[in-house]
Amino acid sequence: MNFPPPWRIYTPAGEGSRALCVVIPFEFIMATTSPNTRAKEAEEQTDLWDTLLSFWRALRKNWILAAAVTLTAVVATAFFTLGQKKIYRSAGTIQIDPTPPRPLGNEIQSVVEMGTGAYLNNREYYETQYRILKSGRVANAVVRQLGLHRDAAFLRNSPQSETPAPMEVPVEAAADILLTRLEIEPEKQSRLVTVAVQDANPERAQRLVAAVIETYREQNLDNVLASTTSAVDWLEGQLKKLKKELEADEFALHDYKKQKNILSLSLDDQSNMLRGEMGKLNELLTEVRAKRENIDSRRQELRKINLSDPTNLPASELLESQLLQALRTAYVESIRDRDSLLASGKGKEHPSVAAANAKVEINRKALAGEVKNILGSVEKEYRAVTRESGGLKRLYDSANKRALELNLMEIEYNRLKRAKENTERLYSVIQDRTKESDLTRMMRVNNIHVVDEARVPKAPIKPSVPLNLAMGLIVGLVLGVGASLGKEVLDRSIKSPDDLEKDLHVAFLGLLPALSGETAQGPGQKKRRRRRGSRTAPVALTGRPELVVHDQPTSGIAEAARSLRTNLLFMSPDKPYKTLLVTSAAPMEGKTTVASCIAVAMAQAGQKVVIVDCDMRRPRLHKIFDKTNDVGLTSALLDIDAIDDGLKETVVPNLSVLSCGPIPPNPAELLHSEAFSRVLHELQERFDRVVIDSPPLVPVTDATILSTRVDGTVFVVRAGKTSKEFGKRAVRSIRGVGGNLVGAVLNAVHADRPGYNYYYQYYYYRQGYAPTGEADAPRHEAGLN
């Protein structure tokens, strides 16, 4: 594809821009990308360009700071490098084996492990050894061995050619000096460690490395031997103690068996025998109890027989006793014979009937006597069976008691036997470990080996002049750029209209320059020296700074206020704002000054204006216009007729002021009330414009409430003081409740500072105004509320 040669050129806009261009084949981009992609890429390029441009402006603005920091770093590095002494480095290599040799075999475990195979892939063991190598214990031993605490050349790190004056320090202090020169460098993927010392004397460096390695090896072996010896001594003491405990346990078990008469028969066999005996007794006891119940049933049946007419006898009794059957038969036949005689017509007094009755009575008595005999026999049998059942029950209870006693005896017996077996087993283990540890102690096995001995270095390792200067230059550039950018980044205040529109997303209405609040100079007073570079001397205010628009109508501040008035009118030409709220994010940002300037400028345009002090916490308007504050807005909220007494004319034509009045305890609730709506409506009926001064937005909610009651809100930002975070929070509070945020005013601007010339060049040459110089003191800038 062939494209025509036109190019698109980007030229950065803004103050102090240079001819920086980006050349892009525009047709190629348009032909090869989609609209969405092109828009996204254009947005990314714009963001990147804005970021780079911001960095460039920050560096260009603070290039002196960056250059000074860079030059200082390079010069300091050069002086530091030339002043350094030559340092030599001597190094030796050792091997740390986590699995040392085992002459007794792998089955013999040492009491104190010099290393462990589990640490082969674990850094803990090696990190521990590295720290030991660079520990105070090793360093102290080396210092004492070589007498370094009395070696002035070592203490001062003097070269070989110098002979310093004698000196002596504590051993710990000399050890600290040695540790600062000692280096421990493990070699990756190996068990090797490099031990190095940096010193001004090469021979001394070699001697120190050799001493550190040897001391570390000796201490490692001494630690193992000392730990092993301590362990062996402890094991021998435990062995004697366990031997006494084992003997005591054996005698205790023997005494218990003797006391409880436990012979060779085991407790399990005795328990089985006792269990069989209890089963037999339980079976016999069950049979006897069943027999007793049977006898008791027979006894109860016999007791139910009516002896006066013993005709109804149990069949079981009749079947078992032939005599009873014969007696019952005779008794029944005698009754039948008597009844026959009576049926034949013989009376009761008849001798035959009387004889029959006598026979009946004789048979009845004989039958009743036999029943009694049988009942007596059953009663005796029942008592005998009952005694037998009681005897069996006692035998069973005795066997059960002996079984419980046997269980308790078995528990105690097993406890004594278990204690004896445990002590015997532990005694055997301790005895074996004692013999193994004693053998290990006799062999001096070390897991630290020297691979390379330390040598005397031939050439110094530092200082490196080219490297140091290059590093100094790089560090200086980084610090210089960082200082320049950091100065801008750390400054989170709003300084220009661009900050208002970019960070707060509000329209820029205008600005009010900073004022020199010093009054006219009297006789004998020294005139303040004008700062070099100022175009004109600062204007001297003859009154309060809030009324400068009225006091000096031809000054630049008055022109700025009129420009602000014009912008407000053109923000809504079809429906002008009749009620305006002036507020700020925090105190001391100049909202009262801006409100006064806006009100005065509108009054100068021929409009009938009232300025209302709704700051019911720190009211100031009555002081500015030199009025009393006994009657005001709070009075009108209580009685609408008091508004006439509260409204007062000011020195500014067409401008009235309604002061706060007595300070109430609940300002926010009053602003929410219907009474405030009536007062505001009344003011709108009487005046063309109502300008309201309010408290700041962030500390209290009064201004947030007022923003919903007015046509528009003017947000005041103090240049170089109001932070972006506070500004965003204040703007969110207004928009969050649905308030109409007209725009923002940049207040207390120092017009002679860089960045403002474009905006305020016209005001500088207005008659009677000039920017405030930094050397002017004292200064009272506009808007200290």
Give a brief outline of the structure.
This protein is an alpha/beta fold and 785 residues long. It has 25 helices and 14 strands.
Explain this structure to me?
- The protein has 785 residues and is an alpha/beta fold.
- The protein is built from 25 helices and 14 strands.
- The chain has helices spanning 26-32, 35-61, 63-83, 123-133, 136-146, 152-155, 171-181, 202-259, 267-303, 315-320, 322-343, 351-442, 465-490, 497-504, 548-551, 556-571, 591-604, 621-624, 633-638, 643-646, 667-672, 674-686, 702-707, 724-736, 757-764, and strands at residues 8-9, 23-24, 88-96, 182-186, 192-199, 448-452, 508-513, 579-584, 609-613, 647-649, 655-658, 689-693, 712-718, 741-749.
- The strands form 3 sheets. Strands 7-14-13-8-12-9-11-10 form an 8-stranded mixed β-sheet, sandwiched between helices. It has a 4-stranded antiparallel β-sheet with strand order 4-5-3-6.
- Helix 9 runs antiparallel to helix 12 and helix 11 (322-343) runs antiparallel to helix 12.
Index terms:
four-stranded antiparallel sheet; alpha/beta; flat
Please outline the helices and strands.
Elements: E1 8-9, E2 23-24, H1 26-32, H2 35-61, H3 63-83, E3 88-96, H4 123-133, H5 136-146, H6 152-155, H7 171-181, E4 182-186, E5 192-199, H8 202-259, H9 267-303, H10 315-320, H11 322-343, H12 351-442, E6 448-452, H13 465-490, H14 497-504, E7 508-513, H15 548-551, H16 556-571, E8 579-584, H17 591-604, E9 609-613, H18 621-624, H19 633-638, H20 643-646, E10 647-649, E11 655-658, H21 667-672, H22 674-686, E12 689-693, H23 702-707, E13 712-718, H24 724-736, E14 741-749, H25 757-764
Parallel strand pairs: 7-14, 8-12, 8-13, 9-11, 9-12, 13-14
Antiparallel strand pairs: 1-2, 3-5, 3-6, 4-5, 10-11
